């Protein structure tokens, strides 16, 4: 029997914006995928997962199920805190799913799942010590130590976006002030553009949104960068500096072989990665005296979460 084609697992990635469910083989290839906007309650999520497994399971041998959720998840698969999915707080998701499914099921944080995807089938493959950092609406992180996800005492480790980067910085989505996420996420890039526009400093950016400063996002900064707009360039320098300084701190803490950057901005390639690498080289401890840490773009894109969840589910079956 060929294991790479005959054995399949289901991966689920529930973010604040989107829900993705995929049927994935042992090589990481996605055979089927269902995508929709995010759902509000655990009951709805469980119904959709059961539906998909019934539909796909009639023709395939599904071994197990992995579910990633954007929130703080403990070792028992209970969601403790999920600011973008408020109805899930306190929900014992793994036990509820286990009651409904005939398959073994694992529930973990979505960024851990995405990191596991990149480790098993993406840019971090073959590295025992890696950081996978997602620059999106927030900043997600997965820390790989000894080839395994580092989860801490309670399952809440690697909340890499939430430490104070600037005591005078803007409020973070979590309520803290000046957290790295508030300074270096995709949303932070949009906020910088809005501030410059509101101060009357960014005519080219404003022109992209018909003068409505509040609707400026990170995408508009990227758009203006392509036209060599000086204001966009200066925002970009400030943004990549914030990303790089934070990464240097994380590299000091974990000494990884590789840092994988994911999120929509990765399509910019060297425009994103080169300035970050320069700042890391400047800011890291003992820069001239240590091994170089590679900073690589993620390769799984928006399927990293479901591919990683499916990969983690494989460990549930012998
Ligand atoms: Zn925060």
TrEMBL record:
Gene3D superfamilies xrefs:
3.30.420.40
Pfam families, per the entry: ROK (PF00480)
Q: What SUPFAM superfamilies does UniProt report for this protein, alphabetically?
A: Actin-like ATPase domain
Parts of the chain that traverse the membrane: none
Can you name this protein? Answer: Unannotated protein
């Amino acid at each position: 029997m060929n294991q790479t084609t005959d054995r399949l697992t289901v991966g689920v990635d529930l973010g604040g914006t989107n829900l993705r469910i995929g049927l994935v083989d042992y090589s990481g290839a996605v055979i089927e995928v269902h995508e929709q906007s995010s759902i509000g309650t655990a009951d709805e999520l469980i119904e959709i997962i059961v539906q998909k497994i019934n539909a796909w399971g009639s023709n395939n041998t599904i071994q197990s199920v992995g579910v990633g959720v954007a929130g703080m998840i403990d070792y028992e698969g209970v969601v403790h805190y999920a600011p973008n999915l408020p109805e899930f707080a306190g929900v014992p998701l793994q036990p509820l799913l286990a009651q409904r499914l005939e398959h073994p099921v694992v529930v973990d944080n979505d960024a851990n799942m995405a990191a596991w995807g990149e480790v098993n089938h993406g840019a971090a493959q073959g590295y025992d010590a890696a950081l996978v950092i997602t620059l999106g609406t927030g900043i997600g992180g997965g820390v790989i130590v000894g080839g395994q996800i580092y989860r801490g005492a309670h399952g809440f480790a690697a909340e890499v976006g939430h430490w104070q980067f600037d005591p005078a910085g803007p409020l973070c989505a979590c309520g803290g002030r000046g957290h790295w996420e508030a300074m270096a996420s995709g949303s932070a890039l949009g906020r910088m553009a809005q501030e410059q526009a509101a101060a009357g400093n960014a005519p080219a950016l404003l022109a992209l949104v018909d003068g409505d400063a509040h609707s400026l996002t990170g995408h508009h900064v990227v758009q203006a960068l392509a036209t060599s707009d000086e204001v966009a360039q200066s925002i970009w320098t400030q943004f990549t500096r914030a990303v790089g300084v934070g990464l240097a701190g994380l590299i000091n803490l974990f000494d990884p072989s590789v840092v994988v950057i994911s999120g929509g901005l990765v399509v910019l390639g060297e425009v994103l990665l080169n300035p970050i690498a320069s700042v890391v080289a400047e800011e890291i401890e003992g820069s001239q005296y240590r091994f170089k840490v590679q900073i690589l773009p993620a390769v799984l894109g928006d399927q990293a979460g479901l591919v990683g969840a499916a990969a983690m589910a494989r460990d549930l079956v012998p």
